[in-house]
Automatic annotation (TrEMBL):
Residues 1-20 are annotated as: Disordered. GO terms for biological process: carbohydrate metabolic process. GO terms for molecular function: hydrolase activity, hydrolyzing O-glycosyl compounds. The keyword Membrane does not apply. PANTHER family: GLUCAN ENDO-1,3-BETA-GLUCOSIDASE BG1-RELATED-RELATED. Belongs to the glycosyl hydrolase 17 family. InterPro entries: GH, Glyco_hydro_17, Glyco_hydro_17_plant. Keywords: Glycosidase, Hydrolase. Residues 1-14 have a biased composition (Polar residues). It comes from Lithospermum erythrorhizon. This is Glucosidase.
Amino acid sequence: MRNSDVYSSPTDNPVPSAGRFRPDVIDQMTQIVQFLHQNNAPFTINIYPFLSLYADSHFPVDFAFFDGVSQPIMDGSIAYTNVFDANFDTLLSSLKAMGYGDMPIFVGEVGWPTDGDKNGNIGYAQRFYNGLLPKLAQNKGTPLRPGYIEVYLFGLINEDGKSIAPGNFERHWGIFRYDGQPKFPMDLSGQNQPNKWLVGAQDV
C-alpha cells in the first residue's frame, strides 16, 4: 500500500503489515510522533479512496468501497477488501515499527465527491457512504485495530470558492450542494435504516 504523504509499504511486499514511514521523512516523523505521544494526542490522517482511483487508472474500483466485491489483498491470514482498512493499517504498522503501535489514530477527513471526475458522481458517493456509515456505526474498526475509530466526514457542503488546482472535483465533496440542499438520500445513523433525504437549508 502507498500513501502520497509520509508512509507506504515496499513494492516487493505491498501489504499493510509492512507499512513504514518514508526514509526521507523518518526523522521529522519521529519528532512528530514523539510529540504526539508526550502530549497524549492522536495521530490524525485523511483517507480518500476516491483519490486512489483518481491517481491510478489501474486501481480496482471495487476496492474503494465497502461492499466486499473486490478481489482481496492477502496479508498473511488477513484479507483486505477495501482501501480504507488497508490504508489505516499501513499507518498503524508504521507507528508500530516506530514503537508507538498503541497510539490513537483519528481519521480527520474521509468522503467522496459527486462531480468533477468520471468517478466523482452521486452514485459512487452514495455507494461509499452506504458502506462507510454502517461500518462506523457497528464499530468494526480494521483488521489490526478492531473496535471504535473516530472518523470525521468531509464534507458537509460544496465549496464554490475552493481551488480546483488538484482537480475539478475539489468543489464537490459536500453531501449538500452550494445552496444547502441535499444531493442524495442517506442514513447517517448507519443503522441500516432506509436512506432518507436530509433536511436542506431554508431561505438560502
